[in-house]
Amino acid sequence: MGPPRVTAHPAERPDPTAAAVLESGRAVLETEARALADMAAGLGDAFVRAVEAILASEGRLIVAGIGKSGHVGRKIAATFASTGTPAHFVHAAEASHGDLGMIGARDCVILLSNSGETRELSDLIAYTRRFAIPLIAITRIPASTLGTKADITLALPDAPEACAIGMAPTTSTTASLALGDALAVAVMRRRGFEPESFRLFHPGGKLGAQLMRVSEIMHTGAALPLVGEDSAMPDVLVRMSGAGYGVALVAEGGVLSGIITDGDLRRKMDGLLARRARDVATRDPKTIAPDALVSEAVGIMNRAKVNALCVTEGDGRIVGMVRLHDCLRAGVV
User: Fold this and answer.
1) If both were cysteines, with which of 8, 83, 224, 233 could 188 make a disulfide (CB 3.0 to 4.6 Å apart)?
2) Domains in the chain, ordered, with CATH?
3) Cα dihedral across residues 250, 251, 252, 253: positive or negative
4) Is residue 69 helix, strand or coil?
5) CA distances from 244 to 35, 51, 248, 305, 307 (A)
6) pTM for this prediction
């Protein structure tokens, strides 16, 4: 059996109207927004020293907490790890039962506790002090045990929790999470973290697809439907059918001079088989560089209302071809 349900007396039930619900939601957001604004205004030397400590670490960044602070800590560790700083989360309670061995002398530790008196953090605090491991505290009370023992203390705003009873972790967890993001982004910028680096840590999903390069999905070599300017159209049709892309790339000496699409064939159907490739090709076709983002290729094709782009180097030399279908299959829409 689960916990007993508490049913409010009809006279005690909250106002069910949409206006009351919206008012409640806005009050939470405004309370938390004020806390974040206060924290941003008070950011100072301790924040700078925390960033420098993380950058100076020759090991990993260890993030620890318990309860709601633990949930926030997991996200902070994940954000650091995905932006170029090796990091992982250590559960404070598990640390006292062997997981302290995950923390090395060259690591840097961030401990989160709203009150700064969370007793499960005591072994972690003692361990970092014993081995001189840099300790950064995130707490609302700088004068707490955690705040006074840490090398660097980042104070959360002394703001009320946003819940109706003023006790559930809401404002405090939002502030902790935002402060972790601020640290991660500041460190990321100091490291010179580039989109290419971000792609290394996000090869899958939407983020990975958005940062994919054309060179990673383009067709190359013998797969390219290349024909010469003087190619007879029966040969061009055979090449187009064999490649299965619905286009032929017209080139001389490996340099693009035009493209033949299904639309070109329909527009010049009269006497088509007696023509040469030069007579049917569209000149100055849309192209893209191999190091361009796949998302950029999709944009060009959408604007030009075409389904394929020739991939060329700066001198017009053909190095590949990319189709809208290839982009969609890679996850870029």
Assistant:
1) 83
2) 18-193 (3.40.50.10490), 214-329 (3.10.580.10)
3) negative
4) helix
5) 60, 54, 10, 19, 13
6) 0.63
Closest CA to 265 of 295, 234, 291, 286: 234
Q: Which two tokens stand for residue 244?
A: 């299965």
Name the DSSP class of 232: B
Rounded to whole angstroms, how far apart are CA atoms 157 and 169?
A: 13
- Mean residue pLDDT across the chain: 88
Residue pair 275/268 in contact (Cβ under 8 Å)? The answer is yes
Average pLDDT over residues 36-58: 95
Contacts of 6 (CB under 8 A, 6+ apart): none
Look at residue 276 and give its three-state secondary structure: strand
**One-letter amino acid of 86:** P
> And the tokens for 15?
């106002």
Nearest to 212 by CA among 298, 285, 309: 298
Q: Which two tokens stand for residue 130?
A: 């014993």
Let me know the angle formed at the C-alpha of 84 by 82 and 88, rounded to the nearest 5 degrees: 60
Amino acid at position 299, single letter = G
User: Which pLDDT belongs to residue 93?
Assistant: 86
The DSSP call for residue 290 is T
Which candidate, 144, 79, 82, 151, places its Cα nearest to that of 116? Answer: 144
β-sheet bridge partners, residue 308: 323
At 8 the three-state DSSP class reads coil
